[in-house]
Input
Amino acid sequence: MEALLTKTSAVAEATRVLRDDRMTEELLERAKTLYHRSKREYAGLRPALEAQTAGPLSALFFERTLDGEFNAIGTDLLLVIGLLLTSSRAREAAVGLP
Output
């Protein structure tokens, strides 16, 4: 439940920033870089996560199709922007990024 609230708060904050035209080039670049880094890390972890998860939960670790990946980029990037705005953990992960 906490993860859902964290995600919802992050997306809401990112939406406010975009709506209020407060998006900076720096924030967008940091979000894109963090997004790409996390995608690479997840791609490396996904097969082991899927193999270790049994039953219906294993569907959480499916590999997206090209269409699915294309359709998810916007919402994924919005989430990363929001996490950079609301999560100290995300900001720490982004240390050293442009």
Q: What stands out?
A: The CA atoms of residues 50 and 59 lie 8 Å apart.
